Amino acid sequence: xPGINSQKDTKAILLNVAEQLFLSKxxxxxxxxxxxxxxxxxxxxxxxxxxxxxxxxxxxLQRRFRDIVRHKxxxxxxxxxxxxxxxxxxxxxxxxxxxxxxxILDPIDQKRLLAMIYQEMSPDAVAxxxxxxELALPISxxxxxxxxxxLPQLSxxxxxxxASSITGQVLHFIxxxxxxxxxxxxxxxxxxxxxxxxxxTEFSLRGIGxxxxxxxx
Length: 217
Fold this sequence. Notes:
By secondary structure, the protein is mostly helical. The protein folds into two domains: 1-51, Homeodomain-like (Arc Repressor Mutant, subunit A, Orthogonal Bundle); 61-211, Tetracycline Repressor, domain 2, CATH 1.10.357. Helix content is 77%, strand content 0%. The chain has helices at residues 2-25, 32-39, 44-50, 53-81, 89-99, 107-119, 128-150, 156-175, 177-184, 189-208, 213-216. Helix 1 (2-25) packs across helix 3 and helix 4 (53-81) runs parallel beside helix 7 (128-150). The chain is globular.
């Protein structure tokens, strides 16, 4: 079935090329002709496989989001499955935070991906629904459930706030990485990452374990 394989190859090539272009230039600045020229395919291929640039962009984000979710939930579930009951909350948070730093993207592309995600939260967004349904909600649900396994006495809504807070901290440290690094001046990149992971884990544990958390919600 060479025809089917060829179609699959073309679709995969378009996704790979488009992802790199969207990461480096953003959605608005990428032209359809630019994608097809780099992919060495006919312009009509985008309409045939995706129905236009908008849907191609959504397909790129959806693929990337699902990879991110799979990676992060696997790291959390691995801790749970390898722990006695209840699982160690510190290990859950450490594994989750660490998953952001062993991403296959290099630091520049990682920052660009964050910028794309932030853009999709704006009024001019193309795929706001995907950020919620394919990225934020699945990750938040997995982390929230893991927190409740470790601390079943917490309420559902407090665990949800804690999960969102942990994610917010990680995204801040990644996006502001270079500025924060100039303040701490670590000698080694890996040492700097370990400092970040340790800080977020310890800070989050203190916040989750505070006695007055129910009064602050």
